[in-house]
TrEMBL record:
GO terms for molecular function: copper ion binding; oxidoreductase activity. This is Multicopper oxidase family protein. It comes from Leptolyngbya iicbica LK. InterPro entries: Cu-oxidase-like_N, Cu-oxidase_2nd, Cu-oxidase_C, Cu-oxidase_fam, Cu_oxidase_Cu_BS, Cupredoxin. Keywords: Metal-binding, Oxidoreductase. GO terms for cellular component: outer membrane-bounded periplasmic space. The keyword Oxidoreductase applies. Residues 49-160, 201-293, 371-478 form the Plastocyanin-like domain.
């Protein structure tokens, strides 16, 4: 029933993959104790001088590393996280994407953990929780962008249904935490500057697992499972694999029903995907390339089409990213008989149609002397205001409309959603999501069912400078 330490250790050393090797930045966290289905981890947030690729950098770390240690649990496990804040400012933890209580010692983002203090989080992963690629990061309002940009983020993996699909089981697994950094010549993170008020802070150093252009090996038989997280504060990624397709198998909230072939993966801040990559019969090398993309123009903004005028905004800030860069290299030795792709994954239950539709409009405006404020339905975040009240065990449609000039990845805590339509067009396949990017002029319809937990939680823009500057609301489930 419970996960034993031995089992976790064997998972840890299972692959010979570079990113999962013990001691590497993505090594799985040590379980402090593990009895009767209780997994206990220690996490310490602390400023440290660390290596970022070949550079020395003063970053914010969990347990002295960027990204933070990878946590793993199974449905039914009780997870205990003994967290200590050794930063010089308050912080806390958010378990992004997990369906756990938003209150008490669960995913409670209203907590403040002052410098020097500790807090023990403890929650159960529900027995019916889907497998998926989730993550943790700070969520102390006003400091989230700064702390995440500094390096505070780690993966939280739930093992379950998708991992049992036979073809997936045989694939080699690699975790790819994508994150941008900015460093000055002494290895410090420079001040975000004026522009970051609009675009959010964006760095020009693109890392995968805290390294520059790491090499990953596609195993013999040619089936590689990549689990990607965009842990950037504000940067979008638009990835391609030279001439080779990705086969999408999971989105933010877990598996989709069947693989979908894709030539490009766009990841907004906070989004995750899992894809399979197949090797050829011939040996070769595939470069994972981040391409020019303009989030303010949505899917129209890929490539050089992104003119930048729409993303320009009143202060000249543009979310457009115009360089092409290889962020990882996959090598492959060739094979005589490539492993097959799965036909089917995990069925997705459609949510029942509902009469309840709520509107959310996203925009920004001038604050009172402090630069820009970012608004949902015309209002900036207020700790003491409940913005949206819903009833437990109901289904609602939320229509998210972007009436501004910047792209906003909309994120909801606690309960995941399905995107029903994008600008009135139905989406091509059903998927569980917890972040969806809405470009200027677009509207996106989400369907959500509020189950299992009552209490206050939040929704917000995952460009975290926008969130810190007001683009967040309180959702109360009763
Ligand atoms: Cu990953 Cu409320 O955020
Ligand atoms: Cu935003």
């Amino acid at each position: 029933l419970g996960t034993t330490g031995a089992l976790l250790l064997s998972q840890c050393s299972r692959g010979s993959s570079p990113s999962a090797a013990p001691g590497s930045p993505l090594a799985q966290a040590k379980v402090h104790s593990s009895e009767g289905g209780l997994l206990s981890f220690d996490l310490v947030a602390e400023a440290q001088r660390v290596k970022l690729g070949d550079r020395d950098a003063n970053l914010l770390t969990y347990n002295g590393q960027v990204p933070g240690p990878r946590l793993e649990a199974k449905p039914g496990d009780t997870v205990q996280i003994r967290f200590t804040n050794r930063l010089n400012q308050p912080t806390n933890l958010h378990y992004h994407g997990l369906h756990i209580p938003p209150t008490g010692t669960g995913d409670n983002v209203f907590l403040e953990i002052p410098p020097g203090e500790s807090h023990t989080y403890e929650f159960q992963i529900p027995p019916n929780h889907p497998a998926g690629t989730f993550w943790y990061h700070p969520h102390y309002h006003g400091l989230v962008a700064e702390q995440l940009f500094g390096g505070l983020a780690g993966l939280f993996i739930v093992r379950g249904d998708l991992d049992e699909v036979p073809e997936i089981k045989t694939a080699q697994e690699e975790f790819l935490v994508l994150k941008d950094y900015a460093l000055d010549r002494s290895g410090n993170i420079p001040d975000p500057g004026h522009m970051a008020q609009m675009t959010g802070r964006i760095g020009d150093l693109l890392t995968v697992n805290g390294r520059f252009n790491p090499t990953l090996e596609i195993p013999q038989g040619g089936l590689l499972r990549l689990r990607l997280l965009n842990a950037s504060t504000s940067r979008f990624f638009a990835l391609s694999l030279e001439d080779h397709p990705f086969y999408l198998i999971a989105t933010d909230g877990g598996a989709i029903a069947a693989p979908v072939e894709m030539n490009e993966l766009v990841l907004a801040p906070g989004e995750r995907v899992e894809v399979l990559v197949q090797g050829d019969r011939e040996p070769g090398q595939y470069r994972l390339v981040n391409q020019p993309f303009n989030p303010a123009q949505g899917m129209m903004g890929r490539g050089m089409m992104g003119g930048g005028s729409m993303g320009g905004g009143m202060m000249g800030g543009s979310q457009r990213q115009s360089t092409t860069e290889t962020i990882a290299t996959l090598t492959y030795n060739g094979t005589t008989e490539p492993l097959p792709l799965p036909d089917q994954l995990i069925a997705i239950e459609p949510l029942p149609e509902t009469q309840t539709t709520r509107q959310f409009s996203l925009n920004h405006g001038m604050g009172t002397g402090m630069g820009m404020v970012f608004l949902i339905n015309g209002q900036a975040f207020d700790h003491n205001r409940i913005d949206t009240q819903v009833r437990l065990n109901t289904v609602e449609d939320w229509e998210i409309v972007n009436t501004g000039t910047m792209a906003h990845p909309f994120h909801v805590h606690t309960n995941k959603f399905q995107v029903i339509s994008h600008n009135g067009q139905p989406v091509p396949y059903a998927a569980w999501k917890d972040v969806v990017s809405v470009s200027p002029g677009e509207s996106v319809r989400l369907r959500m069912s509020f189950r299992d937990y009552v209490g206050k939680t939040v929704y917000h823009c995952h460009v975290l400078d926008h969130e810190d500057r007001g683009m967040m609301g309180i959702l109360d489930i009763q």
